[in-house]
Design a protein that fits this description.
Blueprint (H helix, E strand, L loop, with lengths): L10 H16 L1 H25 L10 H28 L6 H11 L25 H15 L5 H15 L6 H15 L12 H20 L3 H14 L6 H17 L3 H34 L2
């Protein structure tokens, strides 16, 4: 299937990311011993922050509260590492329902055991509500189809992050799943994992809230013609035998509808995610070139 781009991310940020990546990969030290070891360290750091982003509500003023938070942190970290291992081994360049559901199970084995949720969920403190259980499957089908139509790795990773977080397909662990799916797509495409630090939590949540609200408003403003196209897309997902010509046609429909639902607030969120990717590359480039300079000065 031919791929496309929804132009989710600023071209300037995207070019800067590619430039940093190229500079890093031109350094011979990167290929000699730096790449794999550094990825493992960054995965560990990204996972630590991902878990911490969701543990701010614990009362740590008491011994019992601190113990409970410590237990939950260790449990969530262990599950996240299992989800990461599964994802790195089984993601082959396209997202599927089976892959997303298994990521959710690894993240929260007990409560997400049956895959997609079949009841409503609420997000504490959020200004929006995820789609109802009746709408969840078609929302996920649309997201997966859109995502697998993208050829830009950074957009594909960021798009997955936004929509898994927006749809909340599971009873628990959705934020961790969204961030981990993003990083798995990035690593599969040759990038380092992205890190959203605990210190950036409020900005991250604010941007996500605004992005989801703008998406819902834009969705509500679709024209009658666009709503007909959306329904035809949902009907297409139910078909068993699909020709390549049909797939290409509906990919174009999906792209046009996605563009119609885009708003500045969504671009802000996508650019925020892209900047986190850039920041990791910039920091590692500076570290590696500092290491290289010291190495050659000592000779």
């Amino acid at each position: 299937m031919a791929k496309g781009s929804f132009s989710l991310i600023s071209k300037g940020i995207f070019r800067e990311i590619l430039r940093k990546k190229q500079i890093l990969e031109r350094n011979p030290e990167y290929h000699l011993h730096y790449s794999n070891g550094k990825k493992k360290a960054l995965r560990k750091e990204a996972n630590k922050h991902s878990v911490s982003l969701e543990l701010e509500g614990y009362n740590t003023s008491t011994t019992q509260g601190r113990k409970r938070k410590s237990f939950e942190q260790k449990r969530s970290q262990k599950n996240l590492e299992k989800a990461m291992e599964y994802g790195l081994n089984y993601y082959q360049g396209e997202l599927t329902r089976e892959f997303i559901e298994e990521m959710g199970r690894k993240m929260e084995p007990t409560i997400n055991n049956n895959g997609y949720r079949t009841e409503k969920v609420r997000i504490s403190g959020a200004m929006w509500s995820p789609p109802s259980e009746e709408k969840l499957e078609r929302e996920m089908d649309l997201f997966l189809f859109e995502n697998n139509s993208l050829d830009n790795i950074i957009e594909r990773a960021s798009h997955a992050h936004f929509h898994v977080a927006r749809i909340h397909p599971f009873l628990d662990g959705n934020g961790r799943t969204a961030r981990e799916v993003q990083n798995i797509i990035l690593e599969n495409g040759g990038f380092f994992p992205s890190i959203i630090k605990l210190s950036e939590r409020l900005e991250y949540i604010h941007l996500l809230d605004n992005a989801v609200n703008s998406y819902k408003i834009a969705e509500g403003n679709l024209s009658a013609e666009q709503l007909d196209k959306l329904q035809s897309l949902y009907d297409f997902f139910k078909k068993d035998n699909v020709t390549e010509k049909e797939r290409e046609y509906y990919k174009g429909v999906a792209i046009s509808l996605t563009k119609a639902k885009m708003a500045p607030e969504q671009h802000d969120f996508y650019n925020f995610l892209a900047l986190k990717i850039r920041d990791v590359l910039r920091e590692e480039t500076e570290k590696l070139y500092g290491l290289t300079r010291r190495k050659y000065r000592s000779k």
